[in-house]
Design goal:
It holds the Pfam family Gly_transporter. With 207 residues, this protein is mainly α. The protein has one domain. It is built from 8 helices and no strands. Helix 2 runs antiparallel to helix 4 and helix 6 runs antiparallel to helix 7. It is globular, with a radius of gyration of 17 Å.
């Protein structure tokens, strides 16, 4: 197994967990759990692969990704009630998945030789779009759009770290680790410490 495939497996596993937790909050049946888990798990990577015109979308080339997501959904269906706060579990699992997925997306684009702007965008897309789809389907405000929280910005910072490490000639594993760690650290700071970006506030019209 290649390093990038391992990152994709990790992102699929944890994002599937967040999708299944969202399904538990929506009180769906087991098919709904599987649908949300799979959508969240492969959504970002699918967009990445389609935009980069890869030979095959990663989960089509290897259906094991879908099987993993379905297995996670099934286990979560029977165990989600044991969690004290499924909302907090979802947010923290999502933070972990975000870091892994951004590293995977950035890595794939780097390996294909894309310029830095595209690498950064593919990292952000891989990390953000699965969760965005999950939240839209569940009729919730997407985490990526919530009140200035560090989410897409955390993903972008992580992707830039991967680009910088590659430019400095660092081993790929160090670049991916730096990407995942920085992305998670910024997202965790937003969750635990309230780190955020300034938000737009309209001014009252002049009289």
């Amino acid at each position: 197994m290649t390093l990038l495939a391992a990152l994709d497996y990790g992102a699929v596993f944890v994002f599937a967990l967040t999708g299944a937790l969202a399904a538990s909050r929506a009180q769906l049946d087991i098919v709904g759990f599987a649908f949300l888990a799979c959508l969240t798990a492969v959504g970002g990577g699918t967009i990445r692969d389609l935009l980069m015109n890869r030979e095959a979308v990663f989960w089509v080339a290897d259906p094991a990704y879908i099987l993993i997501a379905c297995a996670v959904a099934a286990v979560t269906f029977f165990t989600a009630h044991l969690l004290e706060s499924r909302r907090k579990a979802l947010e923290w699992a999502d933070a972990v998945a975000l870091g892994i997925a951004v590293a995977a997306g950035s890595g794939v684009a780097l390996v294909q030789g894309h310029p830095p702007v595209i690498v950064a965008l593919m990292g952000v897309a891989t990390g953000c779009f699965g969760g965005l789809m999950r939240d839209v389907v569940c009729n919730e405000v997407p985490l990526v759009l919530r009140h200035g929280e560090l989410y897409a910005s955390a993903a972008l910072a992580g992707a830039v770290a991967a680009i910088a490490a590659d430019g400095l000639g660092a081993p790929a594993i160090l670049g991916y680790a730096a990407c995942a760690a920085l992305t998670f650290a910024l997202r965790a700071g937003s969750l635990a410490l309230g780190w955020s970006l300034p938000v737009y506030k309209s001014r009252p019209p002049r009289s």
